[in-house]
Amino acid sequence: MVTDQARRRLLKAALFGAATPMLPFGCGSISKPTLRTPALIGCALSGRERFNVVVADQQGQPISELPLPSRGHGVAINAPVGHAVVFARRPGDYLMVFDYQRGELIQLRQADARRHYYGHGVYSSDGQWLYVTEGDRSTSRGIIGVYEVATGYQKRDEFTGFGLGPHEVISMPNGTLAIGVGGVHTHGREPMNLDRMRPSLSYVSSQGHLLDQITLADKKLSIRHLAHDGNKTVLCGQQYRGQTEGNPALLSMHTQGEGMIDLQAEPEQWARFNHYIASIAATEEWILATSPRGNCYGIWSKRDLKLVELAPLPDASGVVVFDNVFRVSSGAGSVISQSNPHDKTVLRSSIQWDNHWNAIV
């Protein structure tokens, strides 16, 4: 149920729906409209209980921002129509559609009765549909909500039958949906079934048919975040829900019809990630994964799947790729530009980045 307090937050955000112009560094007056091209979008913090979604250029420098009613998480982008959607952090009670070119609010939608959002969604490759990870509030039954763009994001269908607690959904190049299913029933954010977890990587057709489902050997590894390598391989980032002293592999890869393969690192290196992988991205040669809880990110070789760099970064958050170069965000305002291990440039932005980035392509 959406509380009165949540409704007030939603109304406040809707009323304050105009883009906030950014100030140039070192300047005390409002700048003229920027000519920089929007390239990435991510959520941010801007003070106590103040949350924004920020449109930025390729260097992570802000162009415009919109206020959010509560903390945001993931973003989906529909470049052909210039729309983006930001999803509330789980258990979320809103999604917000906006025009990222103009910085204008289009729609602020509350979760349906007895539903909550899990923080992620993705558009279909043709941009006509938005697929959103949702759950039944009382049971955590996993749902993919299907929304039609042309009708103002009316909900047209719900896909289910793949498990409890889906978190991220991505669209593969062939249109298949890959879903990171955590397998955890939660009350709010409190886990209720850690002794009976059933996490999986599930593949669902665009019509809602379950095509394939694979699990990890360690059932305490809750699959959370996903990416694909531009072809047929899904990269899976896990949250470990087992014993505190355990340090299993937190990053795996899978191609339909084959087995799950763990990426390699020493136990003490996995320990640095503090049991949690957040954002993942891949270039032709490298895979990069962040851990805000571990204040670090790692780079693996795609050729031999071995960890080749483990770098400190306070509140390491989102990662995207532009022209085969990684951009990594930080809650401390740092932006890392890195094309290969040990060759990086550190930039600064005025934004306290939070959770994930998504590239406009």
Automatic annotation (TrEMBL):
Alphabetized InterPro entries for the sequence: Quino_amine_DH_bsu, UCP028101
Organism superkingdom: Bacteria
Protein name in the entry: Lipoprotein
Species whose genome carries this gene: Vibrio renipiscarius
